[in-house]
Design brief:
Shape of chain A: globular
CATH topology of chain A: TIM Barrel
Number of strands of chain A: 10
Largest interface: A-B, 56 and 56 residues
Structural class of chain A: alpha/beta
Radius of gyration of chain A: 18 Å
Strand order of the largest sheet of chain A: 1-2-3-4-5-8-9-10
Low-confidence stretches of chain A: none
CATH superfamily of chain A: Aldolase class I
CATH architecture of chain A: Alpha-Beta Barrel
Number of domains of chain A: 1
Distance between the termini of chain A: 31 Å
Oligomer: homodimer
């Protein structure tokens, strides 16, 4: 019997492919040669990246900003791309970093995580506290979807708020314990992982290791691999000791691997290399 | 000579109207009688609320969640509504609570705050620290637009992260000082207020008063009035002593003032009452 729980679906897919998550951050002015610098070119580019990587990666992470930048036509492309990715068996993590309260959070959750949505999980901001997260979790749990809460981001200034010392712990460590608790009622029957995950950057490997101990049941989404500087050895610290429990996202190093007409081959090779590097450290 | 600085434009508009900001949170199932429970009904409703309140309120605050919930068609309605509001001289604060870093933050900023956008300001999440805010500020400052950073939200669990004690200050108080500093290079020539503002909830009046001292140059967007419990006396603490520097948003108490066929009259009356209550406390 298959489980429709998000973490179980994701882990099954990882087992068939790799923990690679391809970040779809399509910037019009950086589209490779041969594609129109237009919304249509963005759509073709995303289709092409999916075609080139769908049997290597577990999931794609379309970044809503680059679609919203194109106005409502961009949102149409976003939904088309998500449906196309799912048709290729890729799970879709919508990187929207939404975050609000009450009926507004419900509206975001229903918008992106309704039962038939072409999205499997959504990234969310934690600043409102549990009021801002529970509506997402309720909808996700009901519909076999996931939520990834930003805990420790990969950027240079992440620590300005996230590392503020509160007693003997940092803000993001306190949050990590909240995230673990929010997910406690929602473990997948196969993986024992929750539908509530955490975004934890590859660029802070020591924190990554510690945060795994604070959130033993949370799927991790680990950005910052490749172009941002995180290595396979770094991200390995975010996995559960058995080598499960996380996906690692890379965007530029895959989708901009070549700006020439060989962009699809280059993306495929970059994804294959990344998958091999991850397999190596995870089986070590 | 008129200034095209966001804070100057907003204050001039407040002087002509009131500090009332009408929150456009159109929920299909709560549309008043006589309107189709459909995206078309949402569009008619928003137009109707704008028609009823445009000469009373300084601005509207369309909440992106309720438009995104309707898919890309909803985003088309969002942009139409924003343009309609601007055509009625209302400023538009897009309540999107976006937040990301680098090129992604730039994409959100360009998407909502480009020179000809039918949006005047955008709400943003602070969790990434300055990397997540500067791209928004750069675009906003260049284009005469504004950015409102979430500092202290109006919800019950706001304190879970925002009030964590860091040394002798709370997280949100530390953030408040960052927000003031981020805006320091961008004061309007007429108001001496920045294009970088803060969202500070009406439901924590003591904090509101203290946060005004920490952010003397930041325009405040104060939610939580009316249905959430904030009173005119509460929100007065967020204004500068001369009675300027803030807008107060209300959604349910205006747009759901009546569910019957008199919804436009009821919305107008609710906005008039709120404007009168604010004038009274601000002139006291």
């Amino acid at each position: 019997m298959t489980s429709s729980h998000f973490a179980d679906r994701l882990q099954a897919r990882i087992a068939d492919t790799s923990p690679v998550c391809v970040g779809l951050d399509p910037q019009i002015r950086k589209l490779p040669s041969g594609l129109d610098h237009s919304p249509e070119g963005v759509a073709q580019f995303c289709h092409g990246i999916i075609d080139a990587t769908h049997d290597i990666a577990a999931c794609v992470k379309p970044n809503l900003a680059f679609f919203e930048l194109l106005g409502w036509e961009g949102m149409k492309i976003f939904w088309d791309i998500c449906a196309y990715a799912q048709s290729k068996k890729l799970l879709v993590i919508a990187d929207g970093k939404r975050g609000d309260i009450g009926s507004t959070a419900e509206a975001y959750a229903e918008g992106y995580l309704h039962e038939n949505a072409a999205v499997d999980a959504l990234t969310v901001h934690p600043y409102h506290g549990s009021d801002g997260i529970r509506p997402f979790i309720d909808v996700a749990a009901r519909n076999g979807k996931g939520v990834y809460v930003l805990v420790k981001t990969s950027n240079a200034s992440a620590g300005e708020l996230q590392d503020l010392p509160c007693g003997d712990e940092a803000v993001h460590e306190h949050l990590a314990q909240l995230v673990e608790s929010w997910g406690a009622a929602h473990f997948g029957p196969k993986t024992n992982l929750s539908c509530v995950g955490a975004v934890v950057g590859a660029t802070y490997p020591e924190e990554l290791k510690y945060l795994r101990t604070l959130m033993p049941h949370c799927p991790f989404l680990i950005p910052g691999y490749g172009a941002q500087g995180g290595t396979a050895a770094d991200v390995a610290r975010g996995f559960i000791p058995d080598g499960t429990g996380a996906v690692v996202s890379a965007s530029r190093s895959i989708i901009q691997a070549s700006g020439g007409s060989d962009w699809q081959d280059a993306a495929r090779k970059a994804a294959e290399t990344m998958a091999a590097e991850l397999r190596k450290v995870l089986s070590a």
